[in-house]
Amino acid sequence: MSNLHVIVAGGGLGGLALAQGLRRAGVSVAVYEKDASASFRNQGYRIRINSDGIAGLRAVLTPQAYEVFVATAGMPGPRMDTLDHQLNVVHPQNLPADPGLPGGGHLAVNRMTLRQILLSGLADSVHFGAQFTHYTTDLSGTVTAHFADGSTAVGDVLVGADGVNSATRRQYLPRAQVMDAGLRLLYGKIPFVGQEARALVPPELLGLWTTVVGPGRRFVGLAPVQYREPMHKVTARLAPDIELQAESDYVTCVFGARQEQFPCTDAELFAMNGEELQALTLSLLEGWHPQMRQIVSGQDPASIFPVSVRSSVPVAAWETTAVTLLGDAVHVMSPAIGVGANTALRDARVLAARLAEAAGGRPLHEALHAYESEMLGYGFDAVRESAKRGHDLVGQNPLPVPEG
């Protein structure tokens, strides 16, 4: 099917990575994103990129864009320690490092920077302000995507990359469930520029990810993003056509607890401003080591926002059609092992390769089935592993026991 055209609903990291891979393979693609622009809302800060994510980005990006990704990534090493609330190390951990990968396969990346890299070269393919609502198919198998403004788009394949609240999944796979994991997270950033800021967080808390767990399984997660070169110098040296916003070093600081640990309803929690969320966090850290309270006090209040942790419930394989799913739309998971974005990037690499095969003559149904068979294996394995670690460490709700 040499004239294959792919519609992607959703312009997050996974959807954009898929579009990059398809463009690189010469496959026609159009991405439709409901947000008005790439910077319309806060979508998080630091994300961990592991070997799967690195392999995915290396496969889908142009060589120049991939080099920009590597040059803008922090390399904090493989340490992922767990401490108690008095800062005693209770579980030191060093992940295996791969000397053949940048940073040994352990990178800390600013989400917005990565999104800007993934948007590079796609200006004519990404359509913002397009809220996907549903799809229809005709007897020939052609898929028509429908949007809230009444517009439509026609293609040979529809990929639902529209996140945890996926409209594609609701229509295509209504039996698939997304459960409340019982945790609420308050994400924030600590500016990490200047001696005073750097004195706030000691080096032993600046590994790839550090978890500090206290009474009631309340916890604080810390992870640095430290740049090795200013953004404008990176792009001037490697890819002048890629535009990146200037960024300064920071430490992601995440407070989390089970929902019932918060002295307020979800509605009240999600209505709070940054100053109120910071004050709430400090009230829930009474009795913790003074240094941890100082660290949380160092957050920029304007950066703090709440998140409900949710998880997909693994489902059995479905009958392959011209509609498929990618990333959080199919296998959203808790951040307990930090592989959600990496799994979406792996999806993008695998699906781009299979669709390129379809464009080269492989039957489309066969190519999509091959993607789904592989994705459902590693995707739901990651969901299960994330749920288990989240349950064991901080009391996340366990996944339901499969029937039978």
Automatic annotation (TrEMBL):
Molecular function (Gene Ontology), one example: monooxygenase activity
Annotated InterPro entries: FAD-bd (IPR002938), FAD/NAD-bd_sf (IPR036188)
FAD-binding domain residues: 315-383
Upper classification of the organism: Bacteria, Bacillati, Actinomycetota, Actinomycetes, Kitasatosporales
Tree of life domain: Bacteria
Keywords: FAD, Flavoprotein, Monooxygenase, Oxidoreductase
Pfam families in UniProt: FAD_binding_3, NAD_binding_8
PANTHER family: FAD-BINDING DOMAIN-CONTAINING PROTEIN (PTHR47178:SF5), MONOOXYGENASE, FAD-BINDING (PTHR47178)
Gene3D superfamilies, alphabetized: FAD/NAD(P)-binding domain (3.50.50.60)
Protein name: FAD-dependent monooxygenase
